[in-house]
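Exercise 7.
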Amino acid sequence: MTVAIHPLYALLRGELLPDGRVLSYGDNPGDGSYSTTLSLYSPPYLSKGPRPRIALSASEWTYGTENRITVSGGERITKAALIRPEAVTHSSDPNQRYVDLPMTVHGEAPGGGTEIGLNLTDNPNLAPPGWYMLFVADANGVPSVARWVRVEGEEGAARTLRTEPAADATSPAAGTGDARKPRGSLGMEHRHRPAEDVGAWVDGCDRSYGDPSQCLPGVFPREVKGSAAKCRWLDDRGWKPFAVHGRDRHRLDTDGDGTACGRGDRGGAIG
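Solution. The predicted structure, written as tokens, is:
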């Protein structure tokens, strides 16, 4: 582990770099000094083994889609996420985002490595348009070097703030402005409306199911329709019958016993 000591100045910055290291810098202008020191911190997990490598099939992603990548090196991939680049001012980063990406393993890629599908949320409130660092991590917790991905709406979607009430609390209305508008022109309509509960569907995962460590996709692939088909799809990915904690929006607990994909759920039992 490489540790570089940097004093805790009032205006200290800490930034995650695409290679997984953390850059820190800053100073306290109140004492009349200006430090030009840069410190780099290498977390221990960078030294736990070979790092996975990502090959992108496309660097521009659209909301609500599956985006395929090829991963080689390292151990079995267990996690993927988009992380927004830093935009810090006075130790605050309102631009910060960590967007979990539910995964589907499609098998061996034609040119070697493993082909993995990453499901991007269809909610621009969780992942505003713009550039993100894409990381994957293996079973040892070793992350890849990031690849840059641009998230955009489809035919102008997510460019105008939508202020209509959401259909339900788990599907909030989209809301961002056009990031490419010139300064001084936000390009968005705005009306005040009452606050709404965020609901259980966050970071691309529906947290109404299973335990807190599990990520049931907020959106299933288009071809997976119906309770039984969804349960079979989950079974293929190692899921066992699991608890329902809130609204059963995927209709996986059809007999209402509190357990999704159980034996009484219209033939959708797994495990």
